[in-house]
Structure formats: structure tokens, C-alpha cells
Amino acid sequence: MVLEFADRELPGGIVLRVRTEQDSAALAAAYQRNRGHLAPWDPTRTEDFFTEDGQRAQTRELLALREMDAGLPLVLADGDDIAGGMTLSGIVRGAFQSATVGYWLDRAHTGRGLASEALAAVIEAARDQYGLHRIQAATLLANHASQSVLTRAGFERIGVAPKYLQIAGRWQDHVLFQRILHD
User: Fold this and answer.
1) Which member of 118, 129, 154, 174 lies 3.0 to 4.6 Å from 138 by CB, making a disulfide possible if both were Cys?
2) What is the pTM assigned to this prediction?
């Protein structure tokens, strides 16, 4: 089963849509442009990650997971540019019916409500189209902007996970959030 997602127009003419291999050059440019902006919140990246070939390989991996009903890679497209990304990953079916959401925004697009709008669209699809029961997210302790996005979207804080992910070259504590989609 391939997770379908209808394009969603967001404020400012940004379109939330499924990531494609044709986005590789624009993704590489966006990651190069935002390298310093994203570095404190991201895993340490290889130089290849910031290239068109690296983004094409990454996209192929993510689209293969989509084909297996295990992920949904989306981009926030601003014309031919990429303004950010949002991914449902680790989709588990069966009794769990859960996924993890992650996202990033180009520095020039922060503070406009785009992450909140995109997250609302992903929550709606996860609940209504994909039948998921729960979405979880994790943020670094100091990532108050992302925590605000999650809280506005109805996520609740469920705790702190010590040394949860290796971010910026070291294992770091994260605040865990969840949103239950069905009663």
C-alpha cells in the first residue's frame, strides 16, 4: 500500500506535497542554505548529504519506505524551492497504529505558522486516511519553537528521554510528545 497524500496549499503559496526525486537539487540547495540554521537540531551530516546525489539517494530511501506503508516524506514547496520538510516515519500497524513525525523549516520561512499548518494537514491524513491512532514527536530540550508547534497541534508532553538521539554529534535528551488521534 502506498500512502497517498493530496497536495495542500499553505499560507504564502507554499504547497505541502510528497517528496520526489525531482526535488533533489532544490533539497540540496535548501540544506546548504540552512546548514548552520539546522545544525544544532540535526544529526551530524556527511558532505554527501548536502549534494544533489545525496538528496536523490535519501529521497529514494524515503520513497521505498512509503511503498512499504512505513513512511510518508513530504516537502514544503515554494515554487521551485524547498521551504522545509515533514516526514511521518516508523509507521507501525497492527495493535500499535502509530508513527513519528519530524519536520524542519528554511530559516526564511520560520515564524509564519507554516509548520503548524503542515502538521495539521499531516495529522488529518494520519487520522482520516491512514487510520493511525497515535503520532509521537521528540524535540531537544531547548527547542521551544518546535515544542510550541506541537503543543498548538494538540500534542501532549509525555516525558523526557535521556540521551534519546545523537544530535549535533552527541547523545542528547529529548522531550517526548504524543497526540492520540482516536478516542
Assistant:
1) 174
2) 0.95
